[in-house]
Structure formats: C-alpha cells, structure tokens
Amino acid sequence: MATLKITNLHASVEGKQILKGINLTINDGELVAVLGPNGHGKSTLLNVIMGHPKYQVTEGSIFYGDQDVLKLTTDERAKLGIFLGFQNPVEIPGVSNSDFLRAAVNSRSEKPISTYNFYKVLDKATKEVKIPFDFVTRNLNEGFSGGEKKRNEILQLLLLKPNLAMLDEIDSGLDVDAIQVVADVINQEKTNDRSFMVISHYARLFDLIHPTRAVVIINGRIALDGDKDLVKRIDREGYEFIKTEYGINIEKEDQDMNKVSLGTCAVKETIK
To answer: Which of 34, 35, 59, 208 could form a disulfide with 10 if both were Cys (CB 3.0 to 4.6 A apart)?
Structure first.
C-alpha cells in the first residue's frame, strides 16, 4: 500500500488546458468521492494518473509511494497497483474476455497462475458480480450492453485486487440491482485498506459506499476538500453555493452548471 500525492498538476488534451494546478493526497484505505460539473477535469485527472496517451502533463508531479508515476508507462502503473475502471470501456474484437483477464492477473503475479486456479478464482468472482460464467468466453466487451461492460470492469477489479482503484462513473447505465452489486464489491474491497477514487453524478452510489472524503474539481482545480456531507449538500443545492460562499466562478461554455445538482448532473435545477 502507498500514498498517492499529486502536486501542482497541469494537463491538456488536444492543446486545451484542462487541469490547472491539482493538489491532492489520497491515503491508504480512503474512499474519495470526486465531484464537479462536467468538463472540469474529473475524468481527465483519472486518465492522467493512469497514463492515457491522449493527455499531456505540462507541469507538476504524481508520486505513488516513492514511485514517480509520470516516469512509468501505463502497464507499469498497473503493475504498481493502480487501476482505472473506464466510463466507456472499449470493445476489443478477437480477444476473449478470459484470455484478457488471465493475462492481466499474470502481469501482477510473480509466476503465472495455473489454468485450474484461474478458473476457480474466476468462477468465484463472476458469482460476486452476479454474471453468468459463460460471460467470460465472449470477446472483450464486444456486443456487451453498457451495464455488462461496467460489470466487467468490476470483475477486473476483483481479480486484480489493485491498491488504488479509480472508478469513472462505474454506476452509469446500471439499474438499481446492479448498482447494489457494484457497491457491495467496493465495500468488500475497501476493508482491505485499498484506496478508491470514485466519480459519480448520482448520490445513490455514495449513499451505499460511504466515502471517507469528497473533493470537488472546478475549473481544473480542487475547489473543495471535505467530508461525505459535501456529497449531500451538492446533491441538495447544486454547485451554486461554491460561487456565493467561496467566490469561485464556474466556467462552462455550453450551460450554467451553477444550477446543476449532483443527482442528475445536467438537467435538474436546484430549488430556489
């Protein structure tokens, strides 16, 4: 286990500056809710930590323990124990789900897992995620529904047992029962001192997983860092209080995100 320490992180995508000085520390065993209006840097932050090549770091540092994360390739970051559950998992035709999962498990093991032991572990994990075992014989995400893709991300989480799990809207597209399954897995895994960073626009998930902290990203910076009550306040009032109480103008090109609540992110206006 290790502490994630991000200092003065600036990052851009396709020449547009998104992160403008992120300072954030995540300690062992913390479950941090990552909040903020769309387009302000939440997903960018997670992708930069993971090493997505689309994003360019222009300033700052990321350390995980004593490891300089920015000097590591994406696969080296994964071997270090960093995991990203994608908002929109891609389809990979021709690669079976089981082959992919076994290769991923072996990449974090000192010696390859035997076929017998792998399928024994896989069978247990599919039961926990509540998906049919033959689900793993299909090509990776090919033809999967949105909900199936998200369950497959959680299946990877169970098998890889990362030290730091970052989940980007893992609950979007899931029905109530599936959200409960996701929450159960997160609650089970956080008891092992694993750290989580979870992005969601729905207070329901946070009600189930009980974050230890909540951070709000506004204009590419951490605007607020508080306890889980911050989630409830944003769901109730939207982001407008950040401007009135902290003097932070919320930049948005397309719509006024000051009047958007956590619950629906882009459609619900707070009650005046």
So the answer is: 59
